[in-house]
Amino acid sequence: MQKQSTGYLFILPALMVLGMLIAYPVAYTGLLSVTDNAGNFVGLENFRRVLAARATPIAFWNTLWWVLGSIIFQVLFGVMAAILLNQNFRGRAIVRSVTLVPWVVPGIVAATTWAWMLHTEFGIINYMLTAPGLIDKPIGWLTNGNTVMPVMIAINIWKMFPFVAIMVLAGLQSIPNDLYEAARIDGASFWEEVWYVMLPQVRSVIVAITLLLVIWALNHITIIYAITRGGPANKTLITPIQIFRTAFDGMQFGQAAALSVMFFGVAIVIVFIYIRTLASNPEEAR
Amino acid sequence: MKTMTIKLAMAATASFLAMSASAWAGQVVWWTPNFNEARARQLVETFQAANPGVTVKLETTTTDGLPQRILTALQSGAAPDVIDVQHAWVNGYAQNKLVVPLDEAVTEREDYIPAALQYNTWNGKLWGAPYRIETHAIIINRGDFKAVGLDPDKPPQTWEAFADAAKKLTVNGKSGFAITGGGEVGNTIFRSLPFMWMLGGGIISDDGKKVLVDSPESEKAVTFYTDFFKNHLSPSSTLENDGTANRRLFIAEKVSMYQSGQFDIQSIRKENPKIDIGVIPVPHPEGAKTAVILGGWSLVVPSSAKNPDEAKKLVAFLSKSENQAILTDTFPARISAMNAERFNDPILKVFKDMLPFGRPVPAHPNWVQISQAYFDGIQRILLGDESVKDAMDGAASEIEGLL
Amino acid sequence: MSGKTSKLTRPGLPGWLILVGSALLVLVCLFPFWWMVVSSVKTLRELYTVPPIWWPDTPTFQNYSNVLFQSNIPRYFLNSVIVSAGSTGLALILAIFASYGFARFKFKGKPLLQSMVLVAQLLPTAAIIVPLFITLRFLGLVNTYWGLILVYMIITLPLSVWMLTSYFKNIPVELEEAAIIDGASRLECLFRITLPLSLPGIASVMVYAFVTTWNEFIFALCFATDSSVKTLPIGLAEFSTEFNTDWGAVMAASVVMTLPIAILFLSMQRLFVGGLTAGATKG
After folding, report:
1. What is the CATH number of the domain that holds B263?
2. Domain range for C55
3. Do B182 and A248 touch (CB under 8 A)?
4. Is residue A32 part of a domain?
5. Are B184 and A229 inside 8 Å of each other by CB?
6. pLDDT digits (tens, 9 = 90+) for C242-277
7. pLDDT tens for residues A154-175?
């Protein structure tokens, strides 16, 4: 095929910028994870302490739920919205723009607005449910151990599915028309068209987005941090929040770094497996 | 290239400005919270007039993310010269050698409320200059008291009487006494730890060597606190409420009593002038004294400050009695500064009376994790997941590992 | 346009489903935003009532006048525009080349390098703030536009590269092969063939990068301490004091902050449609 070196030339500038920005933080975090606050080498003491903390396993499972729950529905609703927005109908431009709104609203504002809407006493949502008698008494959406995590996930889905929708929509828009025409000549129904033309054509986009969403969900703390700070009683504590709290509330930079290193390691393994199995199969590496 | 030029131009302008103010002046960069800005600016002008050699550059900080931002600057060695911080953070900075001692800048120590100095002391040295202090009291809706036949001028003083009053006030969809169970950890520490102190309990001992959270005294206090929610005297949203949420509920006339500081009075008056506000002392157990946590703000000088000497000069200036009286948003840390006119509002009287009962939270390197472990326990109780005993035993074993 | 040239009608969703779907979409997406707008014209007293008020009797525009005339928001708006446009532009340029390299070339270590690009996104924010600050200080870029623009590469570049790579891959490689036989260079292929066909992808990457940097809070908070470079999210935080938040102003500022982006996207519509016609000419 092509000379290898040309490929490197194309990616070099981006790699250099990223390398410059992350090389030092990675090294710094690595070093910090084996030293105490005074800078003395302490071996694996930080790791031991972090792993012994009661919150660590809780945070691990919460993170798993948070990521899985968020991703599945973000992709599902995002693709559905994209297919809808790819239809021809009057007012489509408006609906497309409106769909973008949740994603455009600043995360901190979205979080506080939702927190306020979901408040047991002041919240408009409980009011809408109690006023017509749908429920007898207000639900503590953010205070009930069983509802708080699903609610967080739902807010995250609300916030991010527009992103999926736009990206998939862009993908749908770049499907060559002859593919549709071929399907039409074969007399395909709409759903057949979705299944045999649209989805396969945007597959690589969906694969890429899903990975990004995973990474994002893994590292996105604004919504939970702004609403519950991981509470009540660690019911919504996810690992990145634990890292944040350990570093900036607890000033235990060494332990936070140790947790970061472990988190980073697990995340890399997940990403690597994902890329190996899905993103770089031979059909796509053409 | 263009940025280079711009940067050069900016550097040139900056140095020109500095030079025009005074030749080779040491510049002191002072980070102060946005709510202090106007008063700080006023003091800076006085300071600069008295010290022609020094210029002060005021940069305002925001409450959201303040600890993160300060720690980032301190850790990376590129800090300003003076920072406004909360008392409770100073010890952590001192232990990590992020700030310098201020012993020579803070004089006339006998004029200070002792607890304020205690907060800023570590290893025999003073690492922060306290300038502002405050405590909680109970804010009440006097109208609600009268409506249920209670006399707001003879408020309940003991725990029992207080719980009874809360029960009487819980009528017509109103909650008698709102506790906190959400938001930042500090909210609930400030409101529940003093109850433990009143009985001689606590989360950990003052010397930081013993866990007290599972002692019978502490558990009794926790029971007293959490029962307000269990007995439905505190709103059903308690687990998501912090101090601010409680104030909003009070303003919306859904809550008749809650604990807070004097800073709430102004918002209540502004947002709901109909409420007849009263302030009463925090109730104490039969035969014991009341207690509160003393909170507030101090000034620190980071180890990486560029002009530590000028910075200390500024700190010394701000620590003067008359200047503390200007800078503080609540009460000054110096007793003599309390005579200023602005602290004479009668509604402040009870808050002032509570000050002598104010105590600092224990100084321990892991205090934040310790208080988090305790707070998680409180939330488990409020959620109904665990009994007081189980929750506090769990917290105790977690805290044990942190001492 | 393409519909007219085609003789066969294209199957679509049934009309009622489009109607129901759109209505649901608009409701779900807009309700919290609408609540935000309602809150921004309420007085403080009206904000916190039980039960909540649907629409205030006399809407107040005091919050907007506070935000626009009595706060630093206009200045921060300008800063945000500069920082977001700068980082979007830089990310786009770097990403176009990198993505082309990943999509069209086979070379040793490609999967590894591809995942390396993503590594930047995996680093927990709490862990990298301090060392990043040190890096910026070393470069002399604390409290500058360039500092923020550069730091935002960590957030925007990896995603941009990934998204563009998958769009480039979807463009049939045969088109370029034909051009190369005609003597075009690789760069010409990229700019004459691949880029014009990827306009929808580029548009969405741009929107992505712009929106993300527009809303970013924690880096801006830590790396921009001077009001000459502070961005809008910091402006929002400045409406909060120790024990109080001016929610009316926050909501008004959020509306001020959100609308430009929504309008930006509306204007981007043309680019998306442009991609559609480009696809048509190709067939």
Report:
1. 3.40.190.10
2. 12-60
3. no
4. no
5. yes
6. 777 777 888 888 888 888 877 777 777 666 554 444
7. 999 999 999 899 888 888 887 7
